[in-house]
Amino acid sequence: MAEGGAVTHVEAGGSAAYWNPGSRILWRYRENAGERFHIVRPVTVVRDDEELLAVWLAPGTECVKPVLADGTAVHVEPLESRYTKPRTVQRGHWFGTGVLKLARPGEPWSVWLFWEPGWQFKNWYVNLEEPLARWAGGVDSEDHFLDISVNPDRTWDWRDEDEFAQARRDGLMDDRLAARVREAGRDAVEVIRAWGPPFSDGWQHWRPDPSWSVPSLPDDWDRTPAHVST
């Protein structure tokens, strides 16, 4: 994919390339305990280098999301059966304000910035996940359920602990993975308490280039990369 931007640099060993600002790539998540992609979001690259990948998910972007087999939204299903009922995927659009996503190479979380209408900054959101695997058309990961919400006043709290516990009960993660996710969460909290990057970098004042159009969702959004790297 990588529409609208050529490669500017190749990392050591040629394992992955950096995208130009304005390039369009896919940010994807595999289903838990599976190989299929069930969350796919076309995004625009804001920055990409050896320190950070920053992308913009624009309002109105067509995305792929998981739903129950009968089309019911996942979040309305009772937690006790949310992860055991058959699922499929559905195309839809990202409503509301856009999201800025920030990820540092090899880190087991990404940081998302949310705004209220009118660019009133709302909060940071630490999404615990597998470190991003890069390929020619974007980045892939697997969500780990547990998250952290960080407020503008720097206070924070754990999110989705109930989903994390249910996922463990339903066999979507074993004890070893759960321990690794908890450790990653504690590491993220230390960054928050120290107010390190990216929280200290002023990204809440960033705005998208007004010339950027909304990326389209390709028909082959679920293609398997020929090569990935982290």
UniProtKB/TrEMBL annotation:
<dbReference type="InterPro" id="IPR035930">
    <property type="entry name" value="FomD-like_sf"/>
</dbReference>
<feature type="domain" description="DUF402">
    <location>
        <begin position="78"/>
        <end position="196"/>
    </location>
</feature>
<dbReference type="InterPro" id="IPR007295">
    <property type="entry name" value="DUF402"/>
</dbReference>
<protein>
    <submittedName>
        <fullName>DUF402 domain-containing protein</fullName>
    </submittedName>
</protein>
<keyword id="KW-0378">Hydrolase</keyword>
<dbReference type="InterPro" id="IPR050212">
    <property type="entry name" value="Ntdp-like"/>
</dbReference>
<dbReference type="Pfam" id="PF04167">
    <property type="entry name" value="DUF402"/>
</dbReference>
